[in-house]
Amino acid sequence: MVQEKGSISIHTENIFPIIKKFLYSDHEIFLRELVSNAVDATQKVKRLSSLGQYNKELGDLRVIVSVDENAKTITISDRGIGMTAEEIKKYINQIAFSGATEFMEKFKEAKDANEIIGRFGMGFYSAFMVADKVEIQTLSYQEGAEPARWICDGSTEFEITDGNRTERGTDIILYINSENEEFLEKHRIQEILDKYAKFLPVPIQFGTRTTSMPDGEDEQGETKYKQVEIDNIINNPNPIWTKQPSELNDEDYLNFYHELYPLAEDPLFWIHLNVDYPFNLTGVLYFPKLKNEFEFQRNKIKLFSRQVFITDEVKDIVPEFLMLLHGVIDSPDIPLNVSRSFLQADSNVKKINSYITRKVADKLGELYRKDRKAYEEKWSDIGLFVKYGAISEEKFYEKAKDFLLLTNTKKEFYTLDEYNEKVKALQTDKEGRVVYLYTNDAEKQDAFIQSALKRSYDVLVMDSPLDNHFIQHLETKLEKVSIKRVDADVLDRLIQKDDSLSHVLTEDESNKVKEIFEKAINNSNMSVTVEGLSADELPVTITMEEWMRRMKEMARMGGGGMQFYGALPDTYKVAINGNHKLINRILNAGNEAQQTALAKQAFDLALLSQGMLKGADLTAFVERSVNMIGDQDKA
């Protein structure tokens, strides 16, 4: 019989339009909310039992989600604490809501369903995003409790009557409206449960599934299998982050990684997070082998609150440089219905961010100290994390400078201090600055690298997309250190010494050489100078100044404020080696046409060595070379 009819709240005439308007884009979270409520009710009865306040059999505590396509209903059933009619009035009817009109005005631009649900305690009412009518059938755990039924058709009117539930717990029955019939499709419900309920602490069942089971042996002694129907349990209620590290081995961590990311390669290593003061946080973060950008986009860190999935957009919780990591973070201090504005403002989130930074730095330092060789072997994978962290987080840099490695063309590894000690004797210029030389393309810049190695200079390899920014950062941190690309100038100008060479040409000869090359090159973006270089250096060297090249590279990477440099034409310095015998030959060639042809050939060789000779110019160079070889044969 009907016990009571009434209105949900004096101030909530607009509650259902609000739900449908503001939560429209995020309909699927209704299932997360209702399943989470069922799990909470189940955990409460377990707690009461453990405290001796409930002495009956707990029985099977799974939460069951079911779909009836004919009746167009979704039911979420639990065997938790249940509710009395009075509790329904208290928890369901009296929504923490005041001034619906004021609310509508304040949030008319809102797009974040989580923010609205979280602020107004509307988790249960998210059911009305997809349902025209919602029914509750419930029986409280309390001795002598009577079953109760609550029903509401999406208006502000409700009805409470006697219920028909015979076992402790609650059924929430949603009568799905015509716009949301996608949620009556089993694969859609499976998809949502896989997303939000994968690690809930109570078993969640959704129908059954077919699996293969051993069924004796065949005549050859091979195991036979048969197909059987079993309960489709969605979740792993005891994921590894809920356990102590001492309970786990490497295989446990690897198995869990593949549970999260079935298609990924094994990770390099992992960090188990476990802290209960000054905030609560558990989780496992994995350092992956990054093969491509798609993998980074797909396999993100997942944020949970008490094992309920919230989001994989965690950039306010995890430092930006660690967004490349994979894994899970779980903190009850982060509410289930969390908004971006909450994450940005909450002090616990800031503490979590700092804690994760410190834990990662400590783990990397420990790996480096414990087994440097193994650490060096992983450097090609983890160097990106460490460099990005050093650039973006001052506190991380302070720790990382002890285990941040530089690699040279001989594949040797050095810490910052070790490298400075290695090169300072030979690579200190006349101003007392230590010059680090580097290549970002060892094959293309091989001629420059070989010239440096002949002088016993060392050349670092800096060829990742991040290295341009990393070099800038190092120059601000390292005292009296300058970092220059090995092809940014001739060696004697990259590392200027007091005893720099002069060339053997007279002033008139030098001017004549400059004139010949300017005519042969015929390009106003090429600035020609005659230099005193070693006789065994190349006759012509083409370089772009270090500062200009860096600005252009940063502009290509989208560096703020660098677009101006990106729009400038490429300008180069052409250094003519006044001590090379070919230059003397050009001066003494029989006529102006021969001088120009030889100069053009020498210039094109320099372009070719830089990978800058292309198209018609390359074809002309090849033809000219063939003709010159032919002329030599005739001679």
TrEMBL record:
GO MF annotations in UniProt: ATP binding; ATP hydrolysis activity; ATP-dependent protein folding chaperone; unfolded protein binding
Binding site for ATP: E33, N37, D78, M83, S98, G99, T170, R340
Record keyword Transferase present: no
Signal sequence segment: none
Domain of life: Bacteria
The keyword Mitochondrion belongs to this UniProt entry's keyword annotation: no
One Pfam family matching this protein: HATPase_c_3
Keyword list, A-Z: ATP-binding, Chaperone, Cytoplasm, Nucleotide-binding, Stress response
NCBIfam families for the chain: PRK05218.1
Family: Belongs to the heat shock protein 90 family.
Name used for this protein in its record: Chaperone protein HtpG
